[in-house]
Amino acid sequence: MDHKLHYKQYCKMLSEVIKEAKKLYYKEVISKWKNEMKTTWNIIHKETNKLTNENNIRLLRINDLVVYNQIAIANELNNYFLNTAGSISNKRINKK
Question: 50-65 burial string, b = 16+ CB within 10 Å, else e?
Answer without folding.
Answer: eeeeeeeeeebeeeee
